Predict the structure.
Amino acid sequence: MAQEVVRRVGPLTDTRDPLSVVFAALADPTRRAILARLASGPVSVGELAEPFAMSGPAVSKHLRVLERAGLVSRERIAQSRPARLEAAPLAQVSRWAEEFRAFWDESYMRLDSLLSTMDDDSANDRGEQRDEP
Amino acid sequence: MSPEQKVRALSVTAPDERSIVVTREFAAPPDRLWRAHTEPELLKKWLGRRAYPMTTCEVDLRVGGRYRYVFTKLDGSKPMGMGGVFDVIERPTRLVTTEAFDDFPGPSVNTIRFEEIDGGTAMTLTVVYPSEEIRDGWLASGMTDGMGEGYDRLDGLLLDD
């Protein structure tokens, strides 16, 4: 799963590992709100700035972070250069998170089963396991 | 699984800027938990998924000793490796390790506490990341509320149960 995430996330110019870049981009609440706004379709910087009570340059700065993470693309032709949500990295993060969650849920359920079959005769084990003399 | 086992809730919280705290209760005394977390032959029986089993489990259980786990998917895709060093070993209540994944941001300092409670053990796993950014990254997929239609799956994956 790790490979999948790393390979498909992009385009990237950041030297940090790709998943870190996506995570850092998603970590900011304003940027998450921008992504939520873009989920309903491409929007210009001016339109994006309005509901957030932010300046155009401030929104552009957030958009650049999202672009570097591959989460947003910008139209190069139109004058307003509307921002567009790119779903692929989100889908990868989502899949990774699901696997991570399932990994621990299933592991701990297996641990429940294992614990119920173990005995408590740990006195001998302690002797073998203990590090200190 | 035995019939008396109930589904136990895994709780994940973020109490400060750099930490994630995972808690769960188990119906067994702390020393069983300790052994299941430190003995390779036991670790291999539970850590991992059926379709994603642990294929390498090396444990040098002494302060400064290293551990190394590798999980290999049955579909043959790239294995997931992780490992670190044992910093504190206090059987059966406290285990402190560093943890680094081969392909994920880190490393973290992990403290596992096993506390005896009525009928079993309360486990508290505290994971401290090197920066708020990395911590938030690990939680981000669970905090992306309101991503709109199609992204509902992202919501609360790590924070809810």
The longest strand of chain A covers residues 72-74. The CA atoms of residues 29 and 92 of chain A lie 20 Å apart. Chain A touches chain B through 52 residues (CB under 8 Å). The two ends of chain A are 42 Å apart (CA to CA).
